[in-house]
Amino acid sequence: xxxxxxxxxxxxxxxxxxxxxxxxxxxxxxxxxxxxxxxxxxxxxxxxxxxxxxxxxxxxxxxxxxxxxxxxxxxxxxxxxxxxxxxxxxxxxxxxxxxxxxxxxxxxxxxxxxxxxxxxxxxxxxxxxxxxx
Length: 133
What we know:
Order of helices and strands: EHEEHEEEEHE
Number of strands: 8
Distance between the termini: 20 Å
Structural class: alpha+beta
């Protein structure tokens, strides 16, 4: 599942599904976030059937979309959807608020530091509190 932010208020779930499917393929489900009055909040979620499509989407980080009817030109944000209450995939005992875009797993702060020092590669994480680092 990916998080999509910066959506125009006129974009529907159907049109977002079509855009994401054209760009990355294999879209299974799209939901636009709304308030209690069903007014769009400018964000949503997209679920893909394929891990390849998911990886391509989160690697983009941003996509510029242009629609002719209605005339919309917008740069939208794409991030992994961060689930609540996930535990660290390494130690399994602490909450894992950091999601690695490359490893595709959750880490606690301690395991993030120790794991990513040993693999000696530049990875970035996404969290609910702090976006990409």
